[in-house]
From TrEMBL:
Membership in a protein family: Belongs to the GOSR2 family.
Keyword Protein transport: yes
Biological processes annotated in GO: intra-Golgi vesicle-mediated transport; protein transport; vesicle fusion
Originating organism: Calcarius ornatus
Protein's membrane topology: Single-pass type IV membrane protein
Subcellular localization: Endoplasmic reticulum membrane; Golgi apparatus, cis-Golgi network membrane
Residues passing through the membrane, by range: 183-203
Protein name: Golgi SNAP receptor complex member 2
GO cellular component, one term: endoplasmic reticulum membrane
Keywords recorded for this protein, A-Z: Acetylation, Coiled coil, Endoplasmic reticulum, Golgi apparatus, Membrane, Protein transport, Transmembrane, Transmembrane helix, Transport
């Protein structure tokens, strides 16, 4: 909990950080998030070794922390995409203002209307890409949440099966179904990433 609150506090510094230090803040937040994920993996292993009467509550607590950290990761990525979009627009404005326009030589006259129209189209494409990336990030986060849920359900089923003394055949069928669900989820994530890549390639 303390580490999650620290990351949330650092997230508040992103909006007020200047251009020179914002990258440092982002790197610090990412490092803390990676460290929390690593600690959660160890906690998940420890929770599975708890006594049966405490195991369920410990597992739910770990899942909640994992869910909170995943949302912090998504928020950081969305901020980075917005920052990248702003920087792109600023560079485009600076390049446009830095161009030299002539009125005497028709051969070297830059078509201002076409340049502005191209700039507007480019900005519109970037906005569409930003929205698409944000949507794709949310979809991937949802798929990760489903993976956590499926993993938790699988462990609960195994715990109940152990308590009821089900046969090894039934246990193998349960594990096989969980294995198939995992590949379906990974396939969905792969298809989503492929669609995002193709759309970005098309827009650019």
């Amino acid at each position: 909990d303390r580490q999650v609150h620290e990351v949330q506090s650092y997230m508040g510094h992103l909006e007020t950080a200047d251009k020179e230090s914002v990258h440092l803040v982002e790197n610090e937040i990412q490092a803390r998030i990676d460290n929390i994920f690593s600690n959660l993996e160890r906690l998940e292993i420890l929770s599975s070794k708890e006594p049966p009467n405490k195991r369920q509550s410990a597992k739910l607590r770990v899942d909640q922390l994992k869910y909170d950290v995943q949302h912090l990761q998504t928020a950081l990525r969305n901020f980075q995409h917005r920052r990248y979009q702003r920087e792109q627009q600023e560079r485009q404005r600076e390049e446009l203002l830095a161009r030299t326009f002539t009125t005497n030589d028709s051969d070297t006259t830059i078509p201002i209307d076409e340049t502005l129209q191209f700039n507007e189209s480019l900005q519109s494409a970037h906005r569409g890409m930003d929205e698409l990336i944000g949507s794709g990030t949310n979809i991937l986060a949802g798929l990760r949440d489903q993976r956590v849920t499926l993993k938790g359900t699988h462990k609960k089923i195994l715990d109940v099966a152990n308590m009821l003394g089900l046969s090894n055949t039934v246990m193998r069928l349960i594990e096989k179904r969980a294995f198939q669900d995992k590949f379906l989820m990974l396939g969905g994530m792969a298809v989503t990433c492929l669609i995002m890549f193709l759309v970005v390639q098309y827009l650019t």
